[in-house]
Automatic annotation (TrEMBL):
<protein>
    <recommendedName>
        <fullName>Acid sphingomyelinase-like phosphodiesterase</fullName>
    </recommendedName>
</protein>
<dbReference type="InterPro" id="IPR004843">
    <property type="entry name" value="Calcineurin-like_PHP"/>
</dbReference>
<keyword id="KW-0472">Membrane</keyword>
<feature type="domain" description="Calcineurin-like phosphoesterase">
    <location>
        <begin position="31"/>
        <end position="290"/>
    </location>
</feature>
<comment type="similarity">
    <text>Belongs to the acid sphingomyelinase family.</text>
</comment>
<dbReference type="GO" id="GO:0005576">
    <property type="term" value="C:extracellular region"/>
</dbReference>
<dbReference type="GO" id="GO:0046872">
    <property type="term" value="F:metal ion binding"/>
</dbReference>
<keyword id="KW-1133">Transmembrane helix</keyword>
<keyword id="KW-0964">Secreted</keyword>
<keyword id="KW-0325">Glycoprotein</keyword>
<dbReference type="InterPro" id="IPR041805">
    <property type="entry name" value="ASMase/PPN1_MPP"/>
</dbReference>
<dbReference type="Pfam" id="PF19272">
    <property type="entry name" value="ASMase_C"/>
</dbReference>
<feature type="transmembrane region" description="Helical">
    <location>
        <begin position="472"/>
        <end position="495"/>
    </location>
</feature>
<dbReference type="InterPro" id="IPR045473">
    <property type="entry name" value="ASM_C"/>
</dbReference>
<keyword id="KW-0812">Transmembrane</keyword>
<dbReference type="Pfam" id="PF00149">
    <property type="entry name" value="Metallophos"/>
</dbReference>
<feature type="domain" description="Sphingomyelin phosphodiesterase C-terminal">
    <location>
        <begin position="304"/>
        <end position="444"/>
    </location>
</feature>
Amino acid sequence: MMKDIVILTFCFCAFGRGLGVDGARGTTRFFWQVSDFHFDASYNSSHGDPTKMCHEGSVTNSTQLGIFGNYLCDAPWKLIVSAMQAMKDFYPDPDFILWTGDSIPHIKDTDINLEKVYINIANVTDELRKTFPNTTIYPVLGNHDSYPSNEMPYDISISDYYRHILTTSHWDSLLVDDCQKQFQKGGYFSISPHVGLRIIALNTNLYSTLNTLTDHLVDPADQFQWLDGQLDDARKSKENVFLVAHIPPGLFEKIPNFPWFHEDYNKRYLDLLQKHADIITAQFYGHEHTDSFRLLYDSNSTEKPIGCLLLSPSVTPWMSTLPGVGANNPSIRLFEYDLETGIIKRYQQFYLNLTAANIDGNATWLQEYDTKEDYALDSITPHDMQHLVDSFYNIKNNIFQRYLIFNSVSQETSPACNSSCFQQNICAITKLAVGEYESCIAGSKTTNNPSSTQNPDFTTKHHEHDNDFPKFLYYVFGAIAIIIFVIFLIIGFLCRSRRQKVVPPRYAKFGSLSVN
């Protein structure tokens, strides 16, 4: 009897473990992030001039352009619609969509006005809502979504900009009444999509180095004070927090000493992130158009990562006018997260090979990479991302070279990067404070950086991962596997013996059959 109980208990535990895994999958959810559409209604595929943002040019300079866009220009409507449809095709029923800003093209302020800004944003809003009629969309403003560009207003007593974004640009169709009320105070809001999670959507354009309206203020639109209060309240409510914004803190990885925030704002923002790091499970930004990330460390220990900032690349393929910054392929990002903990488990980056799409006349979006497969990450936590940074120093595994390719969304398939370039990327990723970044850049150069002539031995569709796993563990796991196998053999024998004792006699003759 005791033997039977042991066997049944073992079987129950084994099956119970399987059910537990399936049950855990029940807490897995997905959401999209899409950023930097930069829709240009003046893109002219028939007579556009690439030197003039693909707007209609003179007869001598005009040329036949791709219908889905050009690397020197912003996104035509066909590309906007294609990106949204790809999101729908790959995963049609997400929990929500994070739309991280910038719908306006990179054109001169003299070529646009505030009314056109509102209409442009409305066009993108309406198409996204039409594509996902039953999905909640959480939008944030980008620095180009204001007029003049970068001049994001802070004083609602003299500007009705935020009210018009709600009404004229149709964001009132995306946000519930409470969020609309808060949004009008400075372009930021907070909402809980489900129990245990709070999404805080910020207007970090108020802190931009290019925003001359706010550079003299202590707390533009009182957003710092509001954010601190929201995070305190989230802690009391035992909620995990997703921070969503357009411009990230820190510095650009493509250009040395290029900060995004005014230094005082950058420090105060980082102070708040460190203060509330225990409840902020993930942060989502756009703006750079490149695929990158940032790590935040404990104020008392530069060795302890406590925050992870994820920077999603853009839909627009436009090549920046900043020196040394190239173009990118259009992209969208799908996140997988745990409903209970708020931890990001993985994300998949999808992209459109713009050159191929224009040649074929058909937009075929593909998966560029998966963080589980291509970075070998179990999840997207500060600890996991620190491990990824550490792997950049190992030139044998080509992980840093892989990161460089993904940084341009595979537009640049053999990027060169010498030791200075490597240091520049590492410092931007790990040093978000201006002073710390400057010290990092000025510090000694690592001796094992990837070579500028190193070529990756993988493609963007399938990557071989070098294994840095300790070899002795293979023997340990091998021994464990053998022991488990032997245990199953014993259990199988016991189960068979038990079964033979209770089998009715009329079937006994089959047990005595012989091949002799």
